[in-house]
């Protein structure tokens, strides 16, 4: 069971990089490119929307939200094209980082803090 979980995690990491490549490819349909860019940006962000130290919810994005997003976007990309992106992703040694995903998460946290401050002080 542990080996199956490790294999699933490796495939998930590969698919995130494949979506990163799909988002940059002009061959990908435009709606799939936008969705792939959003999912890849969030998945490759160095910080999570819900930090992992938050009990239960911290791992929710890692275990449910990201895999569900990947699954949905993969269904939007033609199978032959996705196979090509997966092959390219396998050859990439370094996992890319997403500054856009980082900026999104930071903006959401700042907005939440501003809203909480407004609510508490208002």
Automatic annotation (TrEMBL):
The main location is: membrane
DNA-binding in keyword set = no
- Organism domain of life: Bacteria
Q: What are the entry keywords?
A: Membrane, Transmembrane, Transmembrane helix
The record's subcellular locations are: Endomembrane system
Looking at the record, the residues that make up the DUF1232 domain are 32-68
Annotated InterPro entries:
DUF1232 (IPR010652)
Would you tell me the Gene Ontology cellular component terms? Answer: endomembrane system
- From the record, give the transmembrane residue ranges: 21-44, 56-78, 99-121
Membrane topology label: Multi-pass membrane protein
Name the UniProt record assigns to this protein:
Uncharacterized membrane protein YkvA (DUF1232 family)
């Amino acid at each position: 069971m542990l080996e199956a979980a490790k294999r699933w995690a490796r495939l998930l990491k590969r698919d995130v990089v494949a979506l990163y490549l799909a988002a940059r490819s002009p061959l990908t349909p435009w709606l799939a490119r936008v969705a792939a860019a959003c999912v890849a940006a969030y998945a490759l962000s160095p910080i999570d929307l819900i930090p992992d130290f938050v009990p239960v919810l911290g791992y929710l994005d890692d275990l449910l939200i990201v895999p569900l997003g990947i699954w949905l976007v993969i269904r939007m990309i033609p199978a032959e094209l996705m196979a090509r992106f997966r092959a390219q992703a396998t050859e990439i040694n370094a996992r890319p980082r997403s500054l856009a995903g980082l900026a999104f998460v930071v903006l959401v946290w700042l907005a939440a803090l501003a809203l909480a401050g407004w609510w508490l002080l208002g």
